[in-house]
Amino acid sequence: MSFDRRITPVRADLADERLRGQVEAERFTTGTAKRLIASFAPLHRHPSREAPVDTQAIFGEAVTVYDEHEGWAWVQLNDDGYVGYLPSVGLSDANTEPTHKVGAIRTFIYPGPNLKLPYQDHLTLNSKVVVVETQGEYARLATGGWVFAAHLKMLDAWEADYVGAAERFLHTPYLWGGKTSLGIDCSGLAQTALTAAGIKAPRDSDMQEKELGRSIEIRPDLSGLQRGDLIFWKGHVGLMVDATNFIHATGHSMTVMIEPLAVAEERIRTTSYGAITSIKRL
To answer: Which CATH number fits domain 100-154: 2.60.120, 3.40.50, 2.30.30, 3.40.1350?
Structure first.
């Protein structure tokens, strides 16, 4: 039986209890529920800062920890199922459910309810927090520090337009595996924007192409498109902002950019990922 290593918690010595009978491992475990309390953390393929990074976990994200050793935790992200290693120091017991999420592209954590104080850290869009009190325009977090309360939303408050959420990342630097306002990749942009709108999406473009929406015709002149259509290549994805332009995080400019799809299609087809493989409409 073949499993996708990106979303299958199995090693030679250890595997998720749910995989018992499907995979071979020396032992099985149900893992321990924890949450990330760092602003974000790269998820590495191996327990080393030099190991490749596949994605990032963001503040408040729920994870299942299967193993901890020498400062590294082998985890599975609960939202999209990604498996990898992140520093144990960024994790805390998941004793309290979040009350709010970050609705701004980025917000700062202050030591007190005052914007003139030196900030301590930052949170990115979709981060989940526990608010314990409010004072004026600021909310105090259970993990410490204060954030501008208007930058927070209730957990069930969704963006009406996921393309609009993506557009807020315009000019953000491209970062392989990135999911934050400091750096983001193509599928991270799509997933983050869809998540903000309450649409569950897998992490990588091949998964998104397989699982999201319905296929529509790829016309030779790229006509018939509308805002929100997802354009897929082998290893790349972008979102249409109107009938002719689309937004994507691209290594071409090393930024999130909006450009005519026809221009990008010709460049991508001849220099990197080949022809468009599908167009999906949600």
So the answer is: 2.30.30
- What Cα–Cα distance (Å) separates residue 49 from each residue in 53, 72, 181? 9, 10, 21
How does pLDDT run across 212-259, given as a tens digit for each residue? 999 999 999 999 999 999 999 999 999 999 999 999 999 999 999 999
Q: d(Cα 24, Cα 15) in Å, to the nearest integer?
A: 8
The one-letter code for the residue type at 11 is: R
Domain residue ranges of the chain, discontinuous segments joined by +? 14-93, 100-154, 162-281
Pairwise CA distance, residues 41 & 57, whole Å: 5
**What values do phi and psi take at 55, rounded to 5?**
-165, -175
Q: What is the pLDDT of residue 2?
A: 74
Q: How much is the average pLDDT of 48-70?
A: 97
- Quote the DSSP letter at residue 127: -
C-alpha–C-alpha distance, residues 49 and 18, integer Å? 29
Q: Is the C-alpha dihedral spanning 18, 96, 127, 199 positive or negative?
A: positive
* Superfamily of segment(s) 162-281: endopeptidase domain like (from Nostoc punctiforme) (3.90.1720.10)
For the whole prediction, is pTM greater than 0.85? yes
Q: Give the tokens for residue 131.
A: 């608010």
- Two tokens, residue 149: 């309360």
Task: Name the 3-class secondary structure at 158.
Answer: coil
DSSP H stretches of helix in 83-142:
none
